[in-house]
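Blackboard transcription, Thursday session:
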Amino acid sequence: MSDALLPLGGAAFEGIVTIRETGPQGMIQLRGDLSDPGLAAAVEQASGAAMPAPLGAHVTGPRGLLWMSPDELMVLVPYADAARTVAELGRALGDRHALVADVSDARAHFTVEGAHLRDVLAKLTPADMRREALAPGTLRRTRLAQVAAGLWLRDPLTAQVFCFRSVAGYMFDLLSAAASEGSEVFHHRA
Amino acid sequence: MSTRLATGGRLTDRSDRLEFTFNGKRLTGFAGDTLASALLANDQMLVGRSFKYHRPRGVVASGAEEPNALVNLGTGDRVEPNQRATTTELFHGLSATSQNHWPSLEHDIGALNGLVAPVLTAGFYYKMFIHPRPFWKHIYEPFIRQSAGLGRAPDPEARDPDTYEHVHAHVDVLVLGGGVAGLQAAHAAGAAGAQVLLLEQSPHLGGRAPVDGGTIDGQDPEAWVEATVAALKAMDNVDIRTRTMGAGIYDHGYVLGYERLNDHAPWLAGPRHRLWRIRAGQVVTATGAIERPLSFAGNDVPGVMLASAMRDYLVNYGVAAGDRTVVVTNNDDAYRTAIILKQAGLDVPAILDAREYGGGALAAEARALGIRVEQGRAIAKVQGGKRVTGVAICAQAGAGGLLEEIPCDAVAMSGGWSPVVHLWSHCGGKLLWDDAQAMFRPDPDRAPTGADGAPMLRVAGAANGFLRLGDTLRDAEAQGREAAAALGFTPGAGAAPAAEATEEAPLAPVWLMPQGARDDLRKKAWLDYQNDVKVSDVQLAAQEGFESVEHTKRYTTLGMATDQGKLSNINGLATLSRALGEEIPQVGTTTFRPPYTPISMGAIAGEAKGKLFQPIRKTPLHDWHEAHGAHWEPVGQWRRPYAYPQPGESVHDAVMREVTATRTGLGLLDASTLGKILVKGPDAGRFMDMMYTNMMSTLKPGRCRYGLMCSENGFLIDDGVVARIDDQTFLCHTTTGGADRIHAHMEEWLQTEWWDWQVYTANLTEQYAQIAVVGPKARAVLDKLGGMDLSAEALPFMGWAEGTLGGLPARVFRISFSGELSFEVAVPAHRGRALWERLHEAGAEFGATPYGTEALHIMRAEKGFIMIGDETDGTVIPQDLGLHWAISKKKDDYLGKRAQARSHMTDPDRWQLVGLETLEGGVLPDGAYAVAPGRNANGQRNTQGRVTSSYHSPTLGRGIAMGLVHKGPERMGEEIAFAMEDGETMMRARIVSPVFFDPDGEKQNV
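(Written on the board underneath:)
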């Protein structure tokens, strides 16, 4: 795996929040009937996380489950485990109608860390960044400025942002600009 | 003369002296000054020239409504025209210049326009410049452009060095305006538990109350404001932003705010402006009221000012607009100005009260101070040119007969107050005419409504027509509570503070002074200062038949300047209604539109400038391409290498080299941008048969098939190679630009029409780096990497295989878009760079050459392969392109089948795809038309075909092209002429097969 290159090689920026490119992150796209207990058992087994409710993000370290849409989940596993997990999931799902694909390389990940993270994200997304609307464990698929993105809070002071790989550079520049010196908003409470 | 008094100025800090320049002249002011107050402190009464007549103009107001004091602010890359001096905070080093004069502010040749003013009336341009026609463009327009207009646009090469940003906020109650009403409404809503955001356009909270006096809860208004702001700041659920204007209100509680972060301190780090994009549950506008001018002759001479503004300059900045001020009014409020001036030791020779019955308690107070008060009197005319020297007095009831002349150097006027209803009206709130107060105020029964049909907006205080302090606060408390209650919060037991204000006598509407003013006086009585519109212009419009206020506005330009008629609207429409003999409510108002005052383009753009102007999509190999001198081509939001010119090599030569190297040895192409959509499910085969014109369900796992996709209208929308992964799974390759669009197209059909089919799709485009390995040495280099058997037997043409190639997990598709032996290798994106570099390393001995999109295009054109977007343009069906072989005859249906059976689609006269070979070896211009004899009904030349792709082929050593030609395939060998850009010169070409090179496919089948 030594030849696996992150889109930006792990770029970082220090401003009113800290931006860091993270990964590689194993990601498996799963489309299927999320109300099927057999499917839930399979993804819980694969990720070690509990099945999330709509808009849920159950993540611990590199493992977890993200609720992406009414018929789609993202299964998070360590990067090196992704191919094996795809095969295991395929077996566990048997002949259920489902789509399982390794998309570990399709997206870039960033952490946004610091007390101003809600204000910084609110500069870029129209989604509600208030505490009551985005508690840790809530996933938002939205846009940041001109590109699609997803985000959730790992803890009250750390947001995880992901976007398509091809716009990783745009995303990093965007987050960095939103975190530039002197641009504190002091509107959202941490 | 205007001057700074020895003491006073509650907003200025006299210990902090600031230097600034006006028209290059060095002046000083104090911290806390506005540019307007600092100019007045320096006796700079004349601040600009008017739009049409170049009349001298001075500061008339003290806030956002100012029409005259517009300046060019800043220099070089930071120059900005039309900045209001009244809302520009002074800072050390500020540089301003006045506008619309030549050669100088003091001596302006354009003022000669004033001499011909009698002909420059409303509609003059329309009447005068219509004939002779060519004169408009060549003579009139250049002259008018030179003479009219206000600020100068920045140099086209200037680049704004500042940064801007947006921020989104979601709040329960948004309060716009931070005067006492706004503060009280915010307090009421905040106390009920709602999340409150309050925006105030100026740097100070409290609005006019500290200047206008009275008591609130027994306190001086300033002390009350201080205590209330402190209480609000202590509330965790209230956020107060000063220097932030509520700019516009839109549907569903969407509001734009405009924050100016460092206009007052340009040395600060951070963004200059911030655009607030707010979603509010309820909005309360507490935007106050604006004083109206009176329409008398010479009401635009520098030194004539709104009475409230004169009070503001005195109390807030310690600046007197004059030593001897005549006050003219139709209401009691202006007496406050006279009293304050007198108390400051300045002379007030007279108060001219247009009302026969005169004023109330304030008038008595003025009289007690020894001020002469004249009832039923008016100004016939202001004397003076560049500044006021006196006023001629007459009876308000008459036509302007002179009674007396009073020397003075300033005039304070008040025609009553107009609530700021702009924001209420932005989103459809309707207005009521309040006859007693002579004002339009919001009609609470016709409020802007939200998605639930209930009012989303309330108005509080003076903006709601409550001009007296106590009424204002009671209304504000009620509106704040109701806004919170509308969102389900329970207001507590709090009550509005008790306020005391002096009793006032009723106002008398005065729309013209004197009421029967003679013609010569009406022609000097200004309504719209900024656009130079007079009472006589509006009367003329009415006389000429303009009955609608909207038409009159456009004909006279009343209210169309950058101030949007904040001072002139009501006076203008009252003048119109009188001229039409109708009541004011019958005439109605013009439409208020956002923004309330102009906001910067930078704030609208936000972060989207420079490298953030648009996202650029980059493949995993992008950095390599950049390091190797790629000449880029934008393809959608992607950047793809067009070619890789070497040092000293032209782009064209590079393309030729890349084609030859690929055809003779080994070429490598970054094909990562091609769309890759996974289609899976028990109904996948059935779905694929509907999506593609071909039969896809019969494709065997391990095999690939080229397919076409059409819209339901039959037109070709995309093409690409489909690989069958297993029984239930297909991988669809799309064009670069088609990836997202085709994925959405598939999902739309699955979600809306075939929701009961068991099919899932996934867009895997970005998961893979895909590299085309092309040329006679393609297999050799892959064999060198090792790990997979890619022999002709193991992996025949149009097959795919999965394995480990050079240590990387790979899928290899044996497909060709060039006619060469060709493999497309897909690896996980993070490892694309590794594969690319290994291929270059291993391919060095074969002359491995990276090639770009242009070489790709040439090679596909040499083979006669179509390109979506070149051979198709949304009007082309596969049958036009000779692609009948890719349209299944066996299937019952596919998207587009029915449309393709319609008569126009089967018309034998449709233009058909052919190859075009130029006779003299030249290259046909892309898009050129083949001319046919005769002309059509519109007099245009008839055509019989057009070029869809055209290149110089290095392989064949001549120009090749593809084109759509009338009955083309039946005309092989015929020569036709294509018109060049001039429409006259022709280039001849022979109709040939579109397959120019290796028609039997011998090169790819090895």
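Lecturer's comment: The longest strand of chain A covers residues 147-155.
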